[in-house]
Amino acid sequence: MSPFELSQAVENLKVFFTNFSDLDGRYDPEFYRSREKLIKNFFYPLDKISNSFFIKDGDHDKLPVDAISDELEGKRYLRSQDLKNNEIISANPVYVSSEYFKKMSRCHIYAGDLLFSIMASVGATAIVPNGFPSCMANRAVGILRPKKYSRFLPEYVQVLFNSNVGMALINIQKRGGIQQRINLADIGQLRMPVPDENIQKKIIDIYSNALNLKKEKEVASQSLLDSIDTYLLNELGIIFPRQDNSLDERMFFSSVKDVSGGRFDSDFHRVFYKDLTLELLKKTKVEKIKDISLAVFQGVGKDEVSFSEFKLLKVKNIKQNNEIDFSEIEYIKHVPHRKILCFNDIISPFIGEAIKQYKFSSFVERQGKYTVDNNTGVIRINTSLCNPIYVCDILNSVLVKFQIDRYLGGGGVPFLGASRVKEILIPIVPIEKQNEIAAHIQSIREQAAELQREAVQILEDAKVQIERMILGDSEV
């Protein structure tokens, strides 16, 4: 048999050979090209995850409504969104009945298990700590349980999953489609570098120390941001009324004339809200948004195109702490002139759950034509009366948070709308004082942002150091 030869019309750089025994069940050439390009630089030998861990995932069945329980009676039911910042978080937890938990023994989770997201936010991880209450997981969570003679420390694998090298290996391994995911079979075939145990421990320590420093920076940053409300109340001389949720305090009387033509829900007329309004009126001059603005309106309806001179900002672009994310903008075919954003316009969610995030952001772009969608509102302040940045700071404060809560009430899709926003009360001080307050709060936000940048950089530097170790850099 004559030897195999490539046609001269084929580029050699696009062709490579591999043994059938090395195919790992994958027949797409791009997978092997990408993987070999990466792993050829590793200093340490590689081993498959399946050789050191039992691999499983959570419950494949749709969770029955009658299986849902509570914290007191049930067992924790973990989902991919419960894995964040290398730990299991407790925001909006789900619990299942003890009966359902017993029936799903295959999905039980134990201390020392390495959990990882295999859907949506692929790569999020957590190691179950000792003493964690009995729990199970759904199918979006993968479970790695160390074998007796595992060559990998679970904490080391967790670090790799969070490192640039590990994410590169995972991204090569995962399969796309409508929903990005990584299959358990793919995880089993995932080959990771295996340094000796001492090196693994050193890598774990580097990452753990960086993570702790990062958290310290983040706590300091959040502490600065939390201080803004205290500063603002002190500068305005406002004493926040005490909230008392006792039965006596929640019972009150209101005359018909006070509710006629208005709101009939009792929460709107709570004593606390009245006390807050009285405190504002007593300590400062107060104006409604409608009296200090040129316009308050919602954005435009959907008429999106792939590209246009008109750029569309949505609720997702509005961030906390008076920030706007311009990295994922969309485009719209046409915008009425009156709805094109102006410098220092204030934008905020006016419809939907995002209202409860209480986020208002100043639009400070001077280039391009921007607008917002119809779930988003715009407040255009009359700059001859107020500093828009000062007003935005007030809107982001606890003073307005409770006004928003009062207008939202309970039930249904949260709706604020232009008409309610116009009624929000803003304490007004002389313009010089407004400028001083705005400048000071901006300074606080900048300090907090710098701490956040430092926090991110600390972890990135640790990842680079770990990558150099895996590549065998002798200087590390």
TrEMBL record:
Q: A Pfam family name for this chain?
A: Methylase_S
**Which organism is the protein's source?**
Thiothrix subterranea
One Gene Ontology term of the molecular function aspect: hydrolase activity
Q: Which SUPFAM superfamilies match?
A: DNA methylase specificity domain
Task: Extract one GO BP annotation from the record.
Answer: DNA restriction-modification system
What's the EC number here? 3.1.21.-
> What is the protein named?
Restriction endonuclease subunit S
| Record keywords | Coiled coil, DNA-binding, Endonuclease, Hydrolase, Nuclease, Restriction system
Taxonomic lineage per UniProt? Bacteria, Pseudomonadati, Pseudomonadota, Gammaproteobacteria, Thiotrichales
Top-level class of the enzyme under EC nomenclature: hydrolase
- Please tell me whether the keyword DNA-binding is annotated for this protein: yes
Top-level taxon:
Bacteria
Keyword rRNA-binding tagged = no
InterPro entries (alphabetical): Restrct_endonuc_typeI_TRD, Restrct_endonuc_typeI_TRD_sf, Type-I_RS_S_subunit
